[in-house]
Amino acid sequence: MSEANPSSTEIRQPAPQGATRIFGSPGRYVQAAGLIDRAAEVISTLKVARCAILCSARSQRNEALRLQASLHGAGIETRIATFGGECSLREIEQQVAFLRDDTQPVDALIALGGGKTIDAGKSIAYRLQVPSIVMPTLASNDAPCSAISVIYTPEGVTESFEVFEQSPALVLVDTAIIAEAPARFLVAGIGDAMATWYEARACQRNPAGITPFGVRPTLAGTALAEVSARALFDYSTLAVQAVESRRVNEALEHIVEANTLLSGLGFESGGIAAAHAVAQAFTLLEEVDHNYLHGEMVAYGVLTQLLLEGDQTEAERVGRLFAAVGLPVNLAQLGLEATDSQSLATVVEATLGFPFIGNMPLEITAEQVQQSLLAVDQLGTRLMTELGDLPYARLHGAE
After folding, report:
1. CA dihedral in degrees (113, 115, 118, 123; nearest 10)?
2. 88 marked among binding-site residues
3. 152 a known binding residue?
4. Domains in the chain and their CATH numbers?
5. Residues whose CB falls within 8 Å of the CB of residue 273, separated by 6 or more in sequence, listed in order
6. What is the DSSP code (8-state) at residue 218?
7. 389 marked as part of a ligand binding site
8. Which residue ranges does the record assign to the Alcohol dehydrogenase iron-type/glycerol dehydrogenase GldA domain (predicted)?
9. What local confidence, expressed as pLDDT, does residue 156 receive?
């Protein structure tokens, strides 16, 4: 890692014939119920002697205690770094300074927690020039397996992203911990993961489409994205039921893998497009950003992208699944109104300004984005009339 800072990739078009393709992946991915209590068995393979554990104050009273017990039992020392809650450059630099101010430097960093903790951990590990180990406590997004961190302002608005030279050395997922978290987080992960296939499909259809690595999509990344979507259609409902009962079953194992591994590798090596453009645009609206999860915003983005592409059949199919598991399918379920022209204008402008909107295989105009946002609202409202909104209401405590 010779560079002082990670790269920030920009769209480069057109991609020439024979353009570079890159497939990124973690050194090893391990998923099992109860894994945290034997995490040292896997972490010891890196020959580390002293690990930093980046986690929230809440986690320090729960999962971090179990992780420390496993590591200490294997003779690995630990140092806790308390995550402040926002993956901002200010937070990252503060944590780097904290961990450098020590007579005994760490030789690995474990990011234990949700998506922003994980992204911050990857950025901190890069700057410390140590391997990153990712241990998600939620299956709410596909950050764990990627070599990418989304950077936010201290207020939580998307600011930029970083691409690292190396993927995480290890990704360890304890499905028993995932099953203990509120079902809303797993459901949000389903929204984030579903985007992976449709965005990868768009990048493949566009001869100039590129991945976050700044290169052409790989067949492998696109294939994994498609497998992820297939698993979501087949197992999501059963997996959500399992989490609502706080138990691990085969459906949950499949969905955790789809949300975490398949989606993570699929978006990174297959590409992103309009679904995430819409989701990141929603973060500019304080009332949405502060009350809804990334995957919930992405879910609305998926439906918007499908209607931008004119794929009404697939929008119906995806919308029905989203409604069945409790993802937002109309603007009201994101705390917005179709008549709020100012908020819609903000979303439209930011969508068109997203770095990877050019991956769409057709020209996108502001009018098309606005029409599609409103068409999703109409579709979702109709689905709610047909199917009811009980799953959404249950997840959001509005029964």
Report:
1. -150
2. no
3. yes
4. 28-178 (3.40.50.1970), 182-395 (1.20.1090.10)
5. 198, 199, 202, 203, 209, 305, 356, 357, 359, 360
6. P
7. no
8. 26-175
9. 83
Q: Give the chain's largest Cα–Cα span.
A: 63
Strand, coil or helix: what is 227? helix
Tell whether 72 is in a known binding site.
Answer: no
Is 122 marked within a binding site?
no
Alpha carbons 42 and 54: distance in angstroms, whole number: 18
Q: Which long-range contacts (CB under 8 A, 24 or more apart) does 332-339 make?
A: 332/377, 332/381, 333/380, 333/389, 333/392, 334/282, 334/288, 334/292, 334/296, 334/297, 334/300, 335/287, 335/288, 335/291, 335/292, 336/285, 336/287, 336/288, 338/374, 338/377
Establish whether 346 is an annotated binding residue. Answer: no
Is 260 annotated to bind ligand?
no
Angle between helices 115-128 and 89-100 (to 10 degrees): 50
Please check if 235 is assigned to a binding site: no
> Is residue 47 annotated as involved in ligand binding?
no
| Distance from C-alpha of 304 to C-alpha of 297, rounded to nearest angstrom | 11
CA atoms of 220 and 368, how far apart (whole Å): 31
pLDDT along the chain (399 residues), means of 10: 37 59 95 98 96 96 96 97 95 96 90 96 97 97 93 87 94 98 97 98 96 94 97 98 97 98 97 97 94 97 98 98 97 96 97 96 96 98 90 82
Is there a binding annotation on residue 110? no
The answer to the question of whether 119 is labelled as a binding residue is yes
Contacts of 18 (CB under 8 A, 6+ apart): none
- Specify the pairing of strand 148-152 against strand 170-174: unpaired
**pLDDT score of 14:** 53
| Full-model pTM | 0.92
Tokens found for residue 24: 């990124």
Residue with tokens 């500019």: 284
pLDDT at residue number 361: 96
Cis peptide bond prior to 212, omega within 30° of 0: no
The rounded distance, in Å, linking the Cα atoms of 343 and 347 is 6
> What pLDDT does 101 receive?
85
Beta carbons within 10 angstroms of residue 156's beta carbon: 16
Structure tokens at 294: 């990334």
Cβ atoms of 105 and 94 within 8 Å: the answer is no
**Residue 254 annotated as lining a ligand binding site:** no
